[in-house]
Design goal:
disordered N terminus; globular; 17 strands; alpha+beta
């Protein structure tokens, strides 16, 4: 992959982080959340931590689909930090973890550059080897976790016992493509600077009100990326509009900035979306007229447009190729976190041509909730 022409690399030496490692949700009922991700999204349960493994105040289930790792953690006591997180935010992402060959070095450099330490480096051991972990604070109550697992062969991390429960259907999702943060009014540049100064990331893309707006609402977004482009972190903030934007609604319901959505790449979006629909996952829809201009706007594509129309899959093209994408509805009671399913056919962008259709679909949901 190559960086776009608009990208300007920051002078700060980048950390050694190489890719996403996992995403951890704090949830009200971890057992039920694990079941949901297994049956709806095709994640195998691979490991467990709880009273049976010597942890008596919380439980965690580690899930995997392709190279995507998701952990769901729930509290067993009312005064546990997980319970407090769920009370404030509902079910939500607490940790976005990055794999690195140098946990201690990345943590040390991050703190020296101004990051707030959340968990000092630790070495974890069990019969499967050793792993290293450390954490720093990010936006809201979200943390970034550094994970070193080069010398570990277990199913997740030390402290977790293997517990394999296969999904009924799996193999249709591949890897985390990007993780999107929603922040409050005029906070985007603060977090852009955070990823420049702390991580040595660079600005990969940016979008303003002219790119992301409807009749009623608008937002701004900048995408920060690691030098190898494996980690992409869009940051959204509200912009002036006639009504309350989806970013404002998110921050109001979540109670702070946080992870808005996780984009998951698939090699076959038609097969993936067909499976998700069969599994009962609620997906956003767009008017049928959206597809009338696809031949002129996007040009030739390999997929059958009639099938994409039937599945409500969106299409967009840039100078490197095209992409296909679809978004779920929120996956918990509060209208906060959702997922994106994306297939890239050369394009490294984020579906700029689809923004209006997507945000109008989200606005229809906001209007139904009475929050637009």
């Amino acid at each position: 992959m190559s960086a776009p022409k608009e990208a300007t690399r920051h002078a700060r030496a980048p950390l050694a982080v190489a890719d996403f490692d996992h995403v951890e949700f704090y949830v009200g009922n971890a057992k039920q959340a694990a079941h949901f991700y297994r049956t709806a999204f095709g994640f195998d349960m691979v490991a467990y931590r709880g009273p049976e493994t010597g942890v008596h105040d919380c439980v965690s289930y580690a899930l995997q689909h392709g190279t995507i790792r998701v952990v769901v953690t729930g509290a067993l006591t009312p005064d546990h930090p997980v319970a407090g997180h769920v009370r404030r935010h509902g079910d939500g992402v607490q940790a976005v973890a990055f794999r690195t060959p140098d946990v201690v070095g990345d943590f040390t450099r991050a703190v020296e550059r101004g990051a707030t330490a959340h968990r000092a480096p630790e070495t974890l051991r069990d019969d499967h080897g050793i792993a290293h972990i450390a954490e720093i604070a990010a936006y809201g109550d979200t943390i970034h976790r550094f994970v070193g697992r080069d010398d570990y062969t277990g199913p997740f991390l030390p402290g977790f016992a293997p517990r394999l429960v296969k999904a009924p259907h799996t193999g249709f999702l591949h890897r985390i493509d990007h993780v999107v943060a929603n922040v409050g009014w005029h906070q985007m540049e603060t977090w852009v600077k955070f990823y420049e100064d702390i991580f040595g990331f660079f600005q990969f893309r940016h979008f303003d009100e002219k790119d992301i707006s409807t009749e009623y609402t608008a937002l701004r977004s900048k995408v920060m990326a690691s030098p190898n482009l494996a980690i992409k972190l869009p940051i959204n903030e509200p912009a002036e509009g006639k009504k309350r934007s989806q970013i404002e609604e998110y921050v109001d319901f979540y109670g702070s900035p946080g992870v808005q959505h996780i984009a998951i790449a698939t090699p076959d979006i038609i097969g993936a979306v067909s499976r998700l629909r069969a599994n009962g996952v609620e997906l956003q829809t767009v008017p049928a007229t959206y597809y009338d201009t696809i031949p002129e706007r996007v040009g030739n594509i390999e997929e059958d447009l009639a099938v994409l129309r039937e599945l409500n899959i969106l299409i967009d093209r840039d100078d490197q190729g095209y992409l296909l994408q679809i978004f779920t509805k929120p996956v918990q009671d509060r209208p906060t976190v959702f997922f994106e399913i994306i297939q890239r056919r050369g394009s490294e962008s984020f579906g700029k041509g689809n923004f209006k259709a997507l945000f109008e679909a989200i606005e229809r949901d906001q209007a139904a909730r009475g929050t637009l």
